[in-house]
Amino acid sequence: MAAVCILDEFEVHNNEEFLKIAEDLKPELHTTTVKPVKLLEHVKTHSDEAEPEEKGMREEELSALPEKVFKKDDSIILDFGDHQVGYVTMDLESTGSHQDAPLYLYLRFAERLDELDSDPAEYNGWISKSWLQQEHVHVDVLPARVELPRRYAFRYMEIKVIDVSMKFSLVIRDVTLKAVSAVRQEDVEPLAIDDPMLRKIDRVSVRTLQNCMQDVFEDGPKRDRRLWLGDLRLQARANYQTFKNYDLAKRCLYLFAGMPFNEGKLSACLFLDPKPEPDDTYLFDYALLFGSALLDYYEETKDEKTLKDLYPTAMRQIEIGLDYLTEDNIVPDHSDEFWCFVDWGDGLNSQAASLAILIYSIRYGIRLAQIMNDEERISFLKKNEDELKKSAVEYFWDEEQQMFVSGAERQISWATQIWMILARVFPQEKNRELILRTIEVNPDIRMVTPYMYHHYIDALIRSGEKERALDEMKRYWGGMVNDGADTFWEVYNPDNKDESPYGSVMINSYCHAWSCTPTYFLRKFYNA
Ligand code: RAM
């Protein structure tokens, strides 16, 4: 389990003007009515020993649903055809004698069919099991229209009858979903690339993004359903190439800048309800990357008012980052805390990557300062950039191994090399050699999240390895497609498909914003 860094003192300084701008940009959600496309049933046959034996699934047309009569322990799985986010209504009736007892149902919602094979009662991860999408529902009087109050993220809905009575049975007349999103799929231009796998990857990316675009850019509509700064930066990039909903990006940037804490730090994530509030979690890298998200937004929109409003916040994050430097001009090693995210990999030492992310953020800061004609800041940042690049080489470059190391144990990881490449500590040709060497050496400390893979693909493209970047996208995101993804996942480690940062894959999110960026790469760098 990651040690959670809870701040001793946490003082929020709301900027009401910024929060008002964000509130005024709150989107009206589009709604779509969706019906299941088919029914799935576990087929149970009896062997000679009379032991029931699972023999896979039987598929049926949706039209068979109202004809079915459900007794105690009967169940059915409704397949909604694609990943959905929204609100479910069920029309239920009884058949037989008068309903002489409440109907008692168990409902489960799953993003992937496999999830239904697991038992939530066995969940023992370290984050709340309340995220598991399941309900127990009593219905006292039938017929009834049951409107479930919660929003679910799912493709499959399982309905199990815990009990009816000996005298009546259940009939499910209809189940309907009101799907919600801030954007509509039809507003996205088709991808102008013929490769069928890349087209699939693009389609799944766009669906992932759409289902995460709600009141804000959520990280995952199943979990955590909130606005994380690191996720926002990547979602916004994908959004600029697809839905182009600039208002939602602007709203999220103002929300972060509207709720700094302590000496001006940005929180790693925000809650929206009952009212906007920052989480008491600071992540060094996420806060620094605010400037990169702001520059992306400005380059897309040329919205000078927003740039002017939010520029001081971006600069403050860099100053705070610089304040952490040791006498040796490096970032201290906080790898035993949840302090600099980088990736969810077990045992990853993030010290060198933290420094690289600081250098990367300074480069973005310089570009912002240039647009603002802020000469003083430009020279201050350039000086720091040069010095930090020197200390990165001095402390973390291992001449013998020709790779960057991190922490007292001199750990070699994929993440460290990738962030040093993105920080442009070396010129492009040397970066290209480094990324190729990393691929060849394949350090044991691997990447596990699509968030880190995004930066890997970025590093390949920036090092002039565009074709290889395409192959790697096909291998990684294509791997999820081949494993049945309708939307891309929070965690995908091709070497360990049961990987979960939380102690159980049951709680992993299978529609996760930070995984949607192939559409950004494909449309920005490869579209005809
Ligand atoms: C998880 C979420 C989120 C991410 C953080 C660091 O809780 O998956 O997307 O940004 O980790």
Summarize the structure in words:
With 528 residues, the chain is of the alpha+beta class. 37% of the residues lie in helices and 19% in strands. It contains 14 helices and 14 strands. The chain has helices at 16-24, 196-212, 229-241, 246-257, 284-288, 290-301, 304-323, 351-371, 375-396, 414-422, 428-441, 450-462, 466-482, 518-526, and strands at residues 30-34, 38-46, 52-61, 75-96, 103-110, 134-139, 144-147, 152-163, 168-181, 227-228, 269-271, 277-278, 397-398, 403-404. Strands 1, 2, 3, 4, 5, 6, 7, 8 and 9 form a nine-stranded antiparallel beta sheet that branches. Strand 13 (397-398) and strand 14 form a beta hairpin. It is elongated. The two termini are 45 Å apart. The relative contact order is 0.13. The mean pLDDT is 95.
- Structural class determined from secondary elements: alpha+beta
How much strand? 15-25%
Oligomer: single chain
Q: Which cofactors or ions or other ligands sit in this model?
A: alpha-L-rhamnopyranose
Work out the helicity level.
Answer: 25-40%
Question: Helix and strand succession?
Answer: HEEEEEEEEEHEHHEEHHHHHEEHHHHH
- Looking at the structure, what is the overall shape? elongated
The description of the largest β-sheet is: 9 strands, antiparallel
Distance N to C terminus: 45 Å
Number of strands: 14
| Poorly predicted segments | none
Mean pLDDT score, rounded? Answer: 95
Radius of gyration: 25 Å
How many helical stretches? 14
